[in-house]
Design a protein that fits this description.
The protein is of the alpha+beta class. The protein has two domains: about 90 residues, no CATH class; about 170 residues, no CATH class. Strands 5, 6, 9, 12, 13, 14, 15, 16, 17, 18 and 19 form an eleven-stranded antiparallel sheet that branches. A two-stranded antiparallel sheet has the order 1-2. The chain has a two-stranded antiparallel sheet with strand order 3-21. A hairpin with a 2-residue loop joins strand 1 and strand 2. Helix 1 packs antiparallel against helix 3. The chain starts with a helix and ends with a helix.
Amino acid sequence: MNDIYTTAINTQKATIQWMDVLADNLTNVYSPGFRENKVNFKTFLGGAVIDHNLKNFGQGKSTPGTSNENLFFEGTGFFVVRNPEGNVSYTRIGEFTFDSEGVYRASNGATVQGYILNDKGEIMSGTKSISADLYEETALKGGAMSIPTTNIKLWIDPNNGKFLGKYDEYEIKNDGTIYGKADGGNRSVPLYKIATANFHNPSGLYEVKQGVFVETEESGKPIVGRGEIRSGLLEQSNIDFKNNMADYQMAKVQMELVKALIKTNKDLLQSAMEMATQ
């Protein structure tokens, strides 16, 4: 059995880790799309230790973005993005904009992924169209995610200043469909559907950088995300500021108690050594 000094040292280490997690949460209260981290403890004869960290994937509130190109996903799932190396990742941070070449990109440079649509709004897989019913039918099984995604690109023709050479403007509807609009808005044509994905176990995703995740064996393969997409908005962090502040105060009290326990043990040890030398 470990002595009280070892128990105190182990608990101090766990408390420091806990405070670091809480400080990171509080620092990112206003970071768009930030997912709150939670700490689980387990106890044993040698004191308390961190069992594992949990990522809170609950919905954050919406806030106005900097342009209509920004997106807020109200529902369960993630936007699908692809980095320059071709690797796919998933994010709730909808800080998307069209670059000078008309490519829809995330703030880190990754390209936002979508599906090409025909004029009926059906997803195209090669030369074949997939109806909305078939898309929904295969969604829960992950079948729809086997359809290749593509970079979303709305280039502007320098000759006439129109999107794709024929649309005066574009609009992103709540179902994630991007429409090209012409003839003063009287003609609206579906162009792309923004790809979304979810996972049976999102807690199993690996965070490669803040707010950007990749699938793992634990998360399972992606299925289609469920919810509505709103343009011109961003998702705030889902951090509960009040609870995190309360936990941080508890951690400070715990740290003070552990420090006092360690000091007491040091004093007792020193007194015992002095008595032994007399």
